[in-house]
Amino acid sequence: VMSGPISETQTNRWGLGDESISRLRLWGLFTANYLIDKPVAIISTFVMVIVFLGWIEIRYGTMAAVATWFTGTWVATVVAAIIWWPFALLGIAQPLADVAIPEVGSSAATWTALGVVLGWPGKWSRGSLVAGLASTTFLTALLIDHRTFTSVEHLVAFAFGMLVVAPMLAGCARPVYLDPAFAARFLVGLSGVTALLTAVSVGGTGWPVMVIAGVALVILGVWPISPIPTLALLAVGGVASVLATPNPATIVVFLGAAAILVWPDIFDRDILRGAS
């Protein structure tokens, strides 16, 4: 647990970058994923690991989850560098040496996990298709807006999980017996917990709104009511989160909870019950 912001020295020593390889600090290949530099990143990582990496472990096994976690980070960094390099040569982007600095965090790993969950061998149900398109649009919008190396890594990681890792894991799939209704309620409740954690850790003038929305989602997760009031509350919570905090992770969680209710087949019933 860090008592304050992560220093540049800590990032250089424990993060992942080109110097990690050139100076043989190979432990950065593993330690970078566990050094997270801001509260909102901890919250979004917490949610995505529980939901998406947890699903991979249930569906494909522990080794598959571990492999997804680390290869997602490594491949995203390498491929993003390859994509960035020609744009840097043309003067459109900053030099690669200036942007591919040692990094920390596990966002690339978690985006890879999301890609695996939404990609093959699962059937492209209406929900998974919408979620996949929404995730791609979100990551592309961040790339266009921020134009950072990290944004490229995230988009590459998501595509890698969906188009490469998921097909490779097809032969490892095993039956899963999980009630879709429970999965939906769990995700809605988890969205509420995330909102509460954001209110506590981030604070700001919008914290009362986040607390109210978080409590409402937790109640909905424990005791679901009819769809119309549920969606109305989620819509209000989503709009409020946009106005109250600049944290995109929280907004995505709210929208994800809404998607679970609007398109409940995002976790396809046949897949959840292990049918082929």
Task: Give the topology.
Layout: H1 8-14, H2 18-22, H3 28-31, H4 39-60, H5 62-89, H6 96-99, H7 107-118, H8 126-146, H9 149-168, H10 180-202, H11 207-222, H12 227-244, H13 248-262, H14 269-272
Give an overview of the whole structure.
This protein is an all-alpha fold and 276 residues long. The chain has two domains: 39-172, no CATH class; 180-272. The chain is built from 14 helices and no strands. The chain has helices spanning 8-14, 18-22, 28-31, 39-60, 62-89, 96-99, 107-118, 126-146, 149-168, 180-202, 207-222, 227-244, 248-262, 269-272. Helix 11 (207-222) packs antiparallel against helix 12.
Number of strands: 0
Strand content range: under 5%
Quaternary organization: single chain
Question: What letter string, H or E per element, gives the SSE order?
Answer: HHHHHHHHHHHHHH
- Supply the helix-strand structural class: mainly alpha
Q: Uncertain runs with pLDDT below 50, 5 residues or more?
A: 269-276
Radius of gyration: 19 Å
Kindly state the percentage of residues in helix. over 70%
Q: What sort of overall outline do the alpha carbons produce when their principal axes are compared? A: globular
How many helices? The count is 14
Domain unit count = 2
The termini sit apart by 44 Å
The biggest sheet, with number of strands, parallel, antiparallel or mixed sense and barrel status, is: none
